[in-house]
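Record type: monomer structure entry
Structure origin: computed from sequence
Chain ID: A
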Amino acid sequence: MGGGLDPSKMVAFGKKLKERQLQEWQGYYINYKLMKKKVKQYSPQIEMGALDRRQVLKDFSRMLDSQIEKIVLFLLEQQGVLAGRLTQLGEQHNSCQQQLDIAKISDLREAYRAVGQDLLKLLFFVEVNAIGIRKILKKFDKRFGYRFTDYYVKTRANHPYSQLQQVFKHVGLGAVVGAISRNLGDLQLRHGSYLSIYDQPALPEDPVIDSIKAAVHRLTNSTNFLNFLAQHAFIMQEELPTPIEEQVDDKRYHFMSLLLNLVNTFLYMVNTYIIVPTADNYSISLGAAATLCGIVIGAMAVAQVFSSVYFSAWSNKSYYKPLIFSSIVLIIGNTLYALAYDVHSIWVLLIGRLFCGLGSARAVNRRYISDCVPLKFRMQASAAFVSASALGMACGPALAGLLQMNFKVYKLTFNEDTLPGWVMAIAWLFYLVWLCLTFKEPSRDVPVEPKTTADSAQNDALEKGIRQPLLLNSSGSDKGQHLDNYENEDDDDIENDGSDEAPEEFRKAATSIVSAYRLLTPSVKVQLLIYFMLKYAMEILLSESSVITSYYFNWSTSSVAIFLAALGLTVLPVNILVGTYISNMFEERQILLASEIVVFLGIICSFHVIVRYTVVQYVCSGLIMFVAAEVLEGVNLSLLSRVMSSRLSRGTYNGGLLSTEAGTIARVIADATITLVGYLGEKNLLNLTLLPSLLICIGSIVATCCTYNSLY
């Protein structure tokens, strides 16, 4: 993932599109070459005054409408052909049910599989055309600086007679998929069973159906619980996985090593939140103000800003060594945190937390999943990563609530303030031993066997499909890749980010934060702003909870721990609800905007104005804000992965690092805000810390509305 690209693999998009066309349907694909030439011709015509902007938009819209109409009409014709074949097979199926003939049933199953293979071709046809449409729209926008894509998609996709919706929704294809699935399921040898796919969806399915469902999944980008959870992990991957890459993944995959990465994630989240309920009391016991808890909690995030970079770079060379280093640093950091009480030094406390932040190996955990886990398991691994984080977030405060004891061993004090440090130091020591004994460093060099024939390449492409999403429904692998090399009129579409560098440089990974920032489009910047906002709001809520609840409600450490643990436990149920139901009812951009508005309402409800501040107001408003922020995080990272350049899917300065840095910086600023505002008195702490959250939230809502039509 971190290495350079082979220049021989840099294929012009026009050629790539032509190679992946099915020869018998060649006349029905988007005429990308014609559209591209037309876009070129507009420039001199505008300069000479032969055309104005309005005429260009009208002419280009007409051409694109015509191309989409050609595609859709052919799609409908082929759907009719498949439906006719299924009708005939259905009649044969009915006759087979009356008289059991194993040979006829076997032939019928093969016939249904043949229809399934033809359906795969049709799905592939739709996907290739959708990518071509998206490419030519982006090319037009880049050449003329118009926001034509927003206008075109908005006017066409929302029209009641939209042909573009056939590309988005393809309802007829869903009916064909259902018919093939049901009949193949019925023809499986389950003697004495009257079950169908509708009665028991978990029944074993034919491999053809698995392939079809994978193709449909790529087309619709439909979500379920697993992939909604996986979006939280924001694990970037290359745009066109191949069977060779899958072979490499299988050779590098080691389950115990994956488990160790997930445990690392869990322990680190426990380590982050285990001190939250007691940080204010610990600060007071060391002679500091209670609001210094913001700095104590935030010190870990400050160090993480830097550790994310070096761990990301280190993971280009190794996964084992960074995890070893992380464990050792975390043992030292937690030990220092615990010893600060007996040496009575706030500086030792802060240094201990800084060491803990320097041990943050989440970049390595993410990278291991994206690099070493096979595609067939990557969704589950990504979801497990998020689940481990959520579980750690809940277990941290809960564990702190259980450590309510006070005793001494020699000169060392063990109480509710120091025990979190000692417990985590021991936990990391056990983890280090386990890591040394069982982790397997994946090999970096796996021999790659070249494909021998064009046919095998075509079959592989058909089976895997182009793994780019549909029009403006990008997985991030294509945003910012412009087809902008105009020297060759026929096939000049080498994908790049608008640079004038040589072809081999066009898709190199970003080499610095500055170069990565230059790849950020307005849509990406807005999504990073939203991520910053939600992390800031959540950190304010969590980090000041012990101070606020102590001031207003006189809560004990155990009460704070229960409240924080309850918030953490909402993560998985909320994701199940959103991933299973809500995301299938609404577009992600709709969920995004709605979640931002709910976060805004949660912040508004959290303010203390005039009337007495109650537990019910605090708990309910906090719950609303936290749950909405969790929903927002999943959708936000999903959209971010789609609109982000493919050059940010690899290398040290990747999309995962950028999102991590945005979230970490938000946490640092939030914790610093708590400490600074604390000097004005605890009475003003709540309202003054919520005010920046409110302003940033309003800004993110406005920015979302401005880029709403580009979030497909």
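Annotation 1: The longest strand covers residues 407-409.
Annotation 2: Confidence is low (pLDDT under 50) at residues 1-11, 190-204, 238-249, 446-506.
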